Amino acid sequence: MLKSISGGTNALEKAINGEELSYDDGLDLMVNENLFLLGAAADRIRKKVKGENITFVASYYLNYTNICAASCPLCAFYRKGDESDSYTLSTEQISTRARIAIKEMGATELHIVGGFHPTLDIDYYENMFKAIKNEFPNVTIKALTPAEIFFIARLTKNSVKEVLVRLKNAGLDALPGGGAEIFGKEVRDVIVRGKCSGEEWLETAKTAHEIGLRSNCTMLFGHIEKPEHIIDHLIKTRELQKKTGGIITFIPLKFSLDNTELEKKGMISQESASVYDLRVLAVSRLMLANILNNISVYWVALGKKLAQVALSYGGNDLVGTAFSEEIFKAAGKATGTSIQELISLIKEVKGIPAQRDTFFNILRTRN
Fold it and tell me: Are 183 and 200 in contact (CB under 8 A)?
């Protein structure tokens, strides 16, 4: 039994016993706990709540524009409108890509995000969703992060709720979890420029949940944050989930350094160590236990081999195929895989591959 051999901290024993962990407990696990025992505890809890299934979704990433009014130092994707490689897709171009994703690649989900375009009206997004749903009524549109929704509301002088209701009526099914970054102001003010605050992100997600839209939630780690910022972010996520139950999965995202302002200015010289990445994954599982049971491992950021290891540190989901992902690609990461490769990755670590939909309903297991 893990508890009997741990000799670990009270925080780890509380986690094993199913108790909710405090801020101090979380710090203890981030700083003091033996990584292998931490991973074993996270893996035990993962198996208890999710079994042996490791899930993934057939997802196509559609980045409708890279033009962005923000200039976040953490981002290698954004462009200004006068740059030669800036773009904004038309509704026709989006429909063509959706057709390829669904008919040729078997995508059940369209993951649609982009920059904070300074001139696009709500009509652009409504027309996009309507065009997709008219042709493919059964595909799930997971589009526009809470940060994008907040920006669109400010730009168009509508309330967040008004924007969400209009887009839901046009075909929006769920929100991705991006733009959360780190909620704590001390770090967020350094890595984010021109984006909503952590509180505004949380409030936007809460509003989405209240009108029947669900969302993911992310956390960007491995840059300038300290353990206390990780735990603060996890607790705020947990509190939102307690209020609304609207978060589908929590996705810790490893920061990708290449081509970012943080790299160019010498603020960060290397990406986080694998042992730190695994600790963040395990602590996420333990802090969110009994409240939010899906912890997704984003293989695009971690790399496929480390992602496999992370599946024994609390992760129960490999996110998805990420066809045509552009944001991490801009930061030097290889993106895109096949359903068969994800199945193989899961089988290699003795998991049961299970293809899911956006909302974690199992569509089929892949033996």
Answer: no
Tell me the pLDDT tens digit for each residue of 52-76.
999 999 999 899 988 886 666 666 5
CB under 8 A, 24+ apart: contacts of 84-93: 88/64, 88/117, 88/120, 89/62, 89/64, 89/65, 91/124, 91/127, 91/128, 91/131
Q: Using an 8 Å Cβ cutoff, are 230 and 262 in contact?
A: no
User: pLDDT tens-digit profile of 215-273?
Assistant: 999 999 999 999 999 999 999 999 999 999 999 999 999 987 665 666 667 777 788 89
Whole-prediction pTM value? 0.91
The order of strands in the sheet holding 352-356 is: 317-320, 53-57, 352-356, 362-365
Residue 212 scores a pLDDT above 70: yes
Quick one: which of 111, 156, 23 has its CA closest to 336? 111
Instruction: Say if residue 359 is exposed, middle or buried (CB neighbours under 10 Å; 0-12, 13-18, 19+).
Output: middle
Q: Are 125 and 152 in contact (CB under 8 A)?
A: yes
Q: 262-275: per-residue pLDDT in tens?
A: 666 777 778 889 99
Burial class (CB in 10 A: 0-12, 13-18, 19+), 110: buried
Q: What letters, b where the CB count within 10 A reaches 16 and e where it falls short, cover 184-196?
A: beebbebbbeebb
Domain boundary assignment for the chain: 23-365
Taking 50 as the threshold, does the pLDDT of residue 330 lie above it?
no
φ, ψ for residue 200 (rounded to 5)?
Answer: -70, -35
**CATH 3.40.50.800 at 23-365, yes or no:** no
Residue 149: CB atoms within 10 A of its CB come to 28
Strand 352-356 and strand 362-365: the pairing is antiparallel
φ and ψ at residue 354, rounded to 5 degrees? -140, 115
